[in-house]
């Protein structure tokens, strides 16, 4: 238990140090196979369906972006639901919109006549619409029909009027309202509005008024002015509005805005100078979520990243490291990957290591070294770490440079990227000594040198007038003095009482001196054997250890009457609830039996009367002709003789197996049976004899 508790303390300190170190920098990794596994687990069809059409679209869209081919499994049932929804006159605008979204992925076989009727219904709804979601479903539905068939006219002649109706729901901060009756604004609604207006621009039969487009561009910039930002550069749109549709969290709100701005950028030919650092920050926010725990959050994450990668908005490039823990003892190489948010290959570029910041210091080492590109593994490699890098925690600053000037208009690198890196190594432990000193003059009474690379079991003797000294030195692979996060000595009394002391650092070496005269009260005046254990650990120390050194036999004075008593020790749960010792049962020794020959002789004597009975029957010339010949009397006679045979068999069983009590019960039953059948047999013989005499 002591060893386990020591390791728990060691682990907790290391985790806390790593967490505090990584607060100013973070690592963002592109979409990976882990997201695909999560999608297959979260979007699991039940009875051939994912649920509602909205949930089905979210699953299919996620699978489509991640390249998971699973739609054939549910194609038949989903297409039937889509067809039924589109042909039903009771379907709402939202139902029609969701059905068309699903059909856009599955390409179900539908009649163009159905599209004509649905398009007419969407156009009619725009004339009376006053809710943002009604505009969204109607215009979004017409856009989906436009993408799925060319036989239906979906263009709108009064696009300017509809544009102004939707724009009337906007707010001065770039957010939007769901309706004119609700004063609360929402970032999620802003994304829906931008996506709706983008569709309206595409559906307009004539060009939209440029002044309206300019006003909308200004609203988008205001919306970006209110973006929230983390210390690691991640950006998101907060959402505090709660309506009948429920609360939208920052993930869904940010995803909605990304869908809106990318759709608007694709619909208009004008240049949109979106702030590149905030676009990259949004990508970092979605990647920083890592793997969401629910299906809808995963959809929002994947769909937003797909929109960022496949639109006219600048595509973010993500710098990631396959390993952020490098060992100088193993001479690990620093490897860097640059990909798009979905993990696609980046265009030709170069990566430079610009600066290295040491943990807890604002000073940086200027490196300005370009990493070598490995085309086989698509990584940029720094073969040798700088000479001034020793074990510790650092922040490496990288800079990405695109080689093609045209790519600078297409991709966002975000300037310098800071990544936390932990450099580990094997720490040398040397000059380990433990000694017992005289308390007055400090002379060495007993001294032992230890080798912590092997087993140690020193035995020391000390009293309350002496001191215990432990000293050792730690050095890094580059021969520099090393100061670990923790170094402490533990003394454990044979009664279970433990005492822990921190080993101090004097600069060149670690040293601890225990004056037992001042520790007698802390030791509760307990004399006896104390086990010695040394623990040294650090997150960058590859050979952290918890090592027993031996024991010291302490002779302390007797405790005074009012001295504190040692606290009760916790009961070991294993000894209390663990398996008990096995119970050994003692059975009675088997009794002695007679020899086998004597038993066989006795059996022969028992069977001798039976053979005498048979011989007597032959000698008396028993006549079996008087056995009854009628069916019923013959049956009773047969049962009577069978009962006699059963009695003889019972005697045999009693001899070999049965006990007396069981035999007597069986014999009583057979006796009653024999009395009954024998009486009927004798009655029949008596009646036959009487008839013969009368004749």
UniProtKB/TrEMBL annotation:
It is found in: Endoplasmic reticulum membrane. Pathway: Protein modification; protein glycosylation. Keywords: Endoplasmic reticulum, Membrane, Signal, Transmembrane, Transmembrane helix. GO terms for cellular component: oligosaccharyltransferase complex. Residues 1-26 form the signal peptide. InterPro entries: Ribophorin_II_2nd, Ribophorin_II_3rd, Ribophorin_II_C, Ribophorin_II_N, Swp1. Residues 317-421 form the Ribophorin II second domain. The keyword Iron-sulfur does not apply. One of its GO terms (biological process) is protein N-linked glycosylation. It holds the Pfam family Ribophorin_II_C. It is a multi-pass membrane protein. Residues 430-554 form the Ribophorin II third domain. Subunit of the oligosaccharyl transferase (OST) complex that catalyzes the initial transfer of a defined glycan (Glc(3)Man(9)GlcNAc(2) in eukaryotes) from the lipid carrier dolichol-pyrophosphate to an asparagine residue within an Asn-X-Ser/Thr consensus motif in nascent polypeptide chains, the first step in protein N-glycosylation. N-glycosylation occurs cotranslationally and the complex associates with the Sec61 complex at the channel-forming translocon complex that mediates protein translocation across the endoplasmic reticulum (ER). All subunits are required for a maximal enzyme activity. Component of the oligosaccharyltransferase (OST) complex. This is Dolichyl-diphosphooligosaccharide--protein glycosyltransferase subunit 2. It comes from Fraxinus pennsylvanica.
């Amino acid at each position: 238990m002591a060893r386990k508790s020591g390791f728990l303390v060691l682990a907790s300190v290391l985790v806390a140090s790593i967490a505090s170190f990584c607060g100013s920098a973070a690592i963002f990794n592109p979409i990976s196979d882990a997201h695909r596994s999560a999608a297959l687990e979260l979007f699991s069809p039940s009875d051939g369906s994912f649920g509602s059409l909205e949930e089905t679209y979210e699953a299919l869209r996620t699978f489509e972006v991640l390249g998971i081919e699973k739609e054939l499994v549910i194609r038949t049932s989903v297409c039937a639901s889509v067809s039924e929804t589109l042909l039903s006159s009771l379907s709402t605008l939202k139902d029609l919109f969701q059905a068309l979204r699903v059909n856009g992925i599955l390409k179900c076989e539908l009649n163009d006549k159905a599209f004509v009727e649905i398009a007419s219904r969407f156009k009619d709804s725009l004339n009376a619409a006053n809710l943002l979601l009604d505009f969204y479903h109607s215009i979004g539905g017409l856009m989906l029909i436009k993408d799925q068939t060319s036989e239906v006219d979906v263009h709108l002649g009064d696009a300017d009027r509809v544009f102004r109706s939707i724009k009337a729901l906007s707010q001065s901060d770039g957010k939007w309202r769901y309706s004119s009756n609700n004063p609360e604004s929402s970032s999620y609604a802003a994304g829906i509005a931008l996506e709706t207006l983008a569709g309206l621009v595409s559906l307009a039969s004539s060009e939209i008024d440029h002044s309206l487009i300019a006003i909308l561009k200004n609203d988008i910039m205001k919306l970006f002015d209110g973006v929230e930002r983390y210390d690691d550069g991640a950006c998101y749109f907060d959402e505090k509005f709660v309506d009948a549709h429920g609360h939208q969290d920052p993930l869904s709100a940010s995803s909605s805005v990304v869908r809106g701005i990318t759709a608007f950028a694709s619909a208009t030919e004008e240049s949109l100078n979106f702030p590149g650092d905030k676009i990259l920050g949004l990508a970092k926010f979605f990647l920083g979520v890592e793997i969401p725990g629910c299906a809808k959050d995963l959809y929002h994450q994947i769909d937003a990243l797909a929109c960022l990668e496949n639109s006219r908005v600048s595509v973010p490039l993500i710098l990631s490291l396959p390993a952020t823990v490098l060992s100088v003892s193993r001479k690990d190489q620093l490897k860097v990957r640059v990909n798009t948010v979905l993990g696609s290959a980046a265009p030709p570029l170069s990566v430079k290591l610009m600066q290295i910041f040491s943990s807890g210091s604002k000073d940086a080492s200027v490196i300005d070294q370009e990493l070598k590109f490995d085309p086989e593994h698509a990584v940029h490699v720094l073969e040798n770490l700088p000479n001034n890098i020793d074990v510790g925690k650092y922040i490496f600053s990288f800079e990405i440079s695109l080689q093609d000037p045209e790519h600078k208009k297409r991709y966002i690198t975000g300037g310098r990227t800071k990544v936390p890196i932990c450099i580990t190594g094997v720490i040398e432990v040397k000059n380990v000594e433990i000694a017992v000193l005289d308390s007055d003059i400090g002379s060495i009474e007993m001294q032992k040198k230890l080798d912590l690379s092997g087993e140690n079991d020193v035995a020391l003797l000390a009293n309350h007038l002496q001191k215990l000294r432990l000293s050792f030195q730690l050095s890094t692979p580059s021969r520099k003095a090393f100061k670990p996060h923790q170094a402490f000595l533990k003394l454990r009394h044979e009664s279970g009482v433990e005492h822990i002391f921190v080993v101090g650092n004097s600069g060149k070496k670690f040293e601890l001196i225990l004056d037992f005269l001042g520790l007698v009260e802390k030791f509760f005046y307990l004399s006896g054997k104390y086990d010695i254990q040394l623990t040294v650990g650090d997150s960058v120390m590859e050979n952290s250890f918890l090592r027993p050194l031996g024991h010291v036999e302490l002779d302390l004075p007797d405790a005074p009457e009012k001295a504190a008593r040692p606290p009760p020790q916790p009961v070991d749960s294993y000894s209390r609830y663990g398996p008990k010792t096995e119970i050994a049962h003692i059975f009675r020794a088997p009794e002695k039996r007679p020899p086998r020959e004597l038993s066989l002789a006795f059996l022969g004597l028992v069977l001798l009367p039976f053979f005498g009975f048979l011989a007597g029957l032959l000698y008396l010339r028993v006549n079996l002709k008087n056995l009854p010949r009628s069916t019923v009397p013959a049956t009773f006679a047969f049962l009577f003789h069978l009962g006699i045979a059963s009695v003889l068999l019972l005697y045999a069983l009693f001899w070999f197996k049965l006990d007396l009590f069981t035999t007597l019960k069986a014999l009583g039953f057979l006796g009653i049976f024999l009395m009954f059948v024998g009486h009927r047999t004798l009655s029949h013989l008596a009646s036959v004899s009487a008839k013969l005499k009368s004749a």
